[in-house]
Amino acid sequence: MKQGSILERLAVLADAAKYDASCASSGTAKRNSKDTGGKGIGSTEGMGICHAYAPDGRCISLLKILLTNHCIFDCHYCINRASSNVARARFTPQEVVDLTLSFYRRNYIEGLFLSSGIVKSSNHTMEQLVEVARILREEHDFRGYIHLKTIPDADAELVHQAGLYADRVSINVELPTDAGLARLAPDKNTGRIEAAMAEVKDDIAQSRDETKRFRNAPRFAPAGQSTQMIVGADAASDADIVGKASRLYDGFRLRRVYYSAFSPIPDASAVLPLKRPPLMREHRLYQSDWLMRFYDYSAAEVMQATGDDGMLPLDIDPKLAWALKFRERFPVDVNRAGREAMLRIPGLGVRAVDQIIAARRQRTLRLEDVGKLTVSIAKVRPFIVALDWRPTALTDRADLKSLLAPKQEQLELFAA
């Protein structure tokens, strides 16, 4: 493996890390070097310049790289697989530490997202990842955000050490179905992946219990764990993916499941599709994930929004698709209905529903009042009843979908 300059290797390993979507920093504890009288370096607070976001909407910049893109595994869908003809590079743990601190001091970043290909063995690679976090935390008192990608086959004690240094740990399930994983990633095993996720879940639960009883108990992955699934590399339907995500949330108390649309790679295996799935499919899966996490939809309800082929429609969002299938549930009286029923009204978000419930305690709401709380009252009108509004036959119109579907328009590349 040819070793170039730091910048040359950074170009290779930063580019190789772009395929991992699970780098959000929501849920981490607030931690600042000012808390210790100015000792240490870094912070999880303040404004950043990248694309990871805290729960309150702050942007937190992350240095997102691989320790190495060399890998002994040969997953068909991975650009860094053993048989892939790509430029290879590798950092030492100390070099990653130096880069992180150097970028932080220049105000480029506020944290680190570190993953890696598997080099030598799972345990050896995991030791290297943990060493990066250890040096940052113990030798430099780094208080910024750290997200480590852990390796399912690594020893449980190594993964535990990772969680003691990192704000978040994540283990990728890779593909939605066992059959897809066996076909496209024969070196990986669903049972081992989920066993590792279960151990992390137990460590997080134990840590939270200990911190309630002992003030100085060490925290384990305070921002929880997440995972990622590749969409469109195998024959899994959206219903399969939604069902898998629901089981992961319920079984392992994940903070997030990320969806990454498969992207064709150079010298691809013949078992992979020739074209990437529509990016809108990835977007619809994120919307369905949102429905389960914040709108109290069950996985079965989201699956009801799919077609006969198990796929979510691309022209309308899953919430509208569900409402059009179950028109007998509408219209909903915004002055009387419960919160669960109102969360199913297309066009109303969680905040709008809560504001409606608060406002109707003071007065009976009109259509105009609801319109002030939503971006598009046209989308809401067919599904609600207000003091001065009833949709009459509008809810049952055969062409309702075409009336509510977003209009297709050609955008101008150089429009002012």
Report on the architecture of this protein.
This is Biotin synthase. InterPro entries: Aldolase_TIM, DNA_rSAM_put, Elp3/MiaA/NifB-like_rSAM, Endo/Exo/Phosphatase_dom_1, rSAM, rSAM_sf, RuvA_2-like. It comes from Croceibacterium mercuriale. By secondary structure, the chain is an alpha/beta fold. It has three domains: 261 residues, TIM Barrel; 48 residues, no CATH class; 77 residues, no CATH class. Helix content is 38%, strand content 9%.
CATH topology of the largest domain: TIM Barrel
Mean pLDDT: 89
Low-confidence residue ranges: 41-50
Fourth-level CATH superfamily of the largest domain: Aldolase class I
What is the CA–CA distance across the termini?
Answer: 48 Å
Q: Examine the secondary-structure arrangement and name the CATH architecture of the largest domain.
A: Alpha-Beta Barrel
| Main sheet: strand order | 3-4-5-6-7-8
What is the strand content?
A: 5-15%
Keywords: Iron, Iron-sulfur, Metal-binding, S-adenosyl-L-methionine
GO molecular function, one term: iron-sulfur cluster binding
Protein name: Biotin synthase
Cofactor: [4Fe-4S] cluster
